[in-house]
Amino acid sequence: MEEIRLCDSEYRFLQVVWAAAPVPSGQLAELCRQQLGWKKSTVYTVLKKMCEKGLLRNENAVVTVL
Fold this sequence. Notes:
Layout: H1 8-20, E1 23-24, H2 25-36, H3 40-52, E2 56-59, E3 62-65
Antiparallel strand pairs: 1-3, 2-3
């Protein structure tokens, strides 16, 4: 299995997801705004990146951990 490297912000994002999953993507954006101070666009950019790395799935606007 290939090693996946995360930067600090990605890890903090995943901690929010792990605590809330499965979570609607809109609710995740709000949680990240509250806990990380992130804008919605930042949340969706990092979410897309984590999905491409095979760590998360965003299906029907619900984020789940793989």
